# Entry
Amino acid sequence: MAVGLFVIERRLRRLLTTQPQDTGLVLLNQNVQGMQQRIDETTRTLNMRLDKAAEVIQGVSKELGQVQEIGRSMKDLQDFLRSPKLRGNIGEQVLKDLLEQYFPRANFDTQYQFNSGERVDAILKTDKGLIPIDAKFPMENFQKLQKAESDAERESFVRDFTKDVKKHVVDIAKKYILPSEGTVDFAIMYIPSESVYYEIIQQDEDLNEFAREKHVLFVSPNSFYYFMKVLMIGLEGKRVEESSRKILELLKAIQNDATKFGDQLGTLSGHITNAKNSLDRVNNEYAKLSGKIEDVRLLK
# Structure
């Protein structure tokens, strides 16, 4: 359109040159020039908007590249977590880090070995006994459960997932709840993933009842924190109780020492009183003797 107007404008200029007095041509030329100016302004505005759009598209392309990179990283992580052994190592490390945050090293051990040769990921030392803690990451059927496309698939994967969890519960109860070796009568199944944990506790009540019958407690990173707080309060109470007992024993010993010291002080006071009385008698006798000596001296 701009090219057409340009051609028209040139022809009008030639006509105006040959016929300068034609008012209609002058007005037409002015209108064409005005249209050309508006088109030029519109073209400039459009070009500016296209430049900005290009910048936006470039920025979006960059962001998409970053998103794709994140997607590749997530895929690499998912591939990494497909190995049960690697997932187990991650769960054990997270558990160890949590214990180190809340407890002195003397209050827990990691990779604790029982007489049977079985190793539990960690044990907590309490006045009631050792509390076994084992990290479990039942991921395969959980992932299938999340991707289920029908109710039938979901029900099937729920059964498989529940079966996996029950197997872990049985293993923990059998291997690590050993009162004969100083453990308490329950154990903790630590689940490093909150989503897996909530899937477990939201399942049929039979699963949770099964775990309770086996004396196994489910905990996640968040619920484990509160469990730690309660346990720390209990341990702190035990330390306060022990300190109070020691203070009472010290006070009793001080009281006994004070009684003995009082008896000794009384005996010493008696000795001092007797010594004073003896000194007074000696002074009196000395005074009498001195008087007699003076009387003899005066007779001379």
Observations:
- The chain is about 75% helix and 10% strand.
- The chain has two domains: 2-77, 86-219.
- Strands lie at 108-113, 119-126, 129-135, 187-190, 216-219.
- Residues 16 and 23 are 9 Å apart (CA to CA).
